[in-house]
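Dear support,

We are seeing what looks like truncated structure output for some complexes. This example has two components. We would appreciate it if you could run it in full and send us the complete token output so we can diff it against ours.
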Amino acid sequence: MSTETQAVEEVVKEREPLFSKKNRKLITNPLDADNPITVQVLGVCSALAVTVKLIPTLYMCISVLFVLVFSNVAISLLRNVIPGRIRIIVQLLVVASLVAVVDQVLQAYAYDVSKQLSVFVGLIITNCIIMGRLEAFALANKPGPALMDAIGNGLGYAAILIPVAFFRELLGSGSLFGFNILGEGYPGNGVMMSPVGACIVLGLLIWFQRSRNGYTEEA
Amino acid sequence: MGIVENYLNIGIKSIFVDNMIFAYFLGMCSYLAVSKKIGTAVGLGMAVTFVLLITVPLNWLAYNFIIKEGALTWLNGLGVSTSFADFSTVNLEVLKFIIFIAVVAAFVQLTEMVVEKLSPALYNALGIFLPLIAVNCSILGAALFLPGKEFAFGESVVYGLGSGIGWFLAVVALAAIREKLSYSNVPKGLRGLGITFITVGLMAFAFLSFIGFKLPFGE
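Here is the complete output from our reference environment:
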């Protein structure tokens, strides 16, 4: 698991502007070269499970972004008072409280989507991106960079989920955002709707991304 | 249908039909991270099975005696007058995420400490995987599926064990395939993660054939 502590190299100077060059990099890196799903291999469960249709995927991305931002900042603020031995429990409780909020909001304002996402809203708690970033970044950095890191990784997560959902919905049910695109005659493709399609689309997407940026992995 | 047949049915269903990996993609992060070698895959698979076997029944108890609407009715028997506090109408569904994850995290931490004290050999084999398990989606996922399944206590034990065995089988099978795969000439960008996803997709395809599988002991 690639969650080794990645402290920002030199000690961050006092009063560094929030959008300094280094902080901007914290946002742009996870979009491609250090993507949470395709490079760090975190948060894969939900990437495969919720991407059947675009609309639930969007809700999922927003929920993950929300939880990631608030938990990263909260843990970063608490980083000096959390005892090392029980830090996982503390992190999980912070994240679980935020997820309970998201779940209640979704049930109140987007009931259908919350039914479609079913257990996967709750599973944001154990979404490895969140725990991974808390462990690797928030515990070692100030709230400002932690905020940037959270936004970057949340967007990086969306940058993979949305293309996967796009292809799965288009090829699986011939529609986008619920609007029919490929015409009434399109028979639909059961494999794309099933988990199998998710794996294969994601595998090909990784192939595309890596042949573009030249990243290779020893087999 | 006798009680043994019922248990066998639930066991078979949770191992093959509702396989944690191939049907729900739960626990994918650690699944992908530790499936490079059969040895580590067996270690993590055993740890997951053990934790599922214990935490699913624990969470069943938590759900049925604390969280569910009316679950706290037993508090009325303690002698507090119902006009003062009527516990039979209390519904703590809002707190279920926090309670479930607290049970899981506390149990994992406790197991780690006990195993460390009692059996250093087992700790060396299993220990490094235990902290990973608190954030393994399959553990929390199994707990979150419980309310929808309306099991009795015994059934929840079988369900926990079956889900664990299913996860174990999946991780060992993938590790075996990846060990062979390392001798193949895979296109550069597809090496590592990409081809692994496609392999998992094809394995999930094979497991799709269990859907519609007639349970051997009747309904």
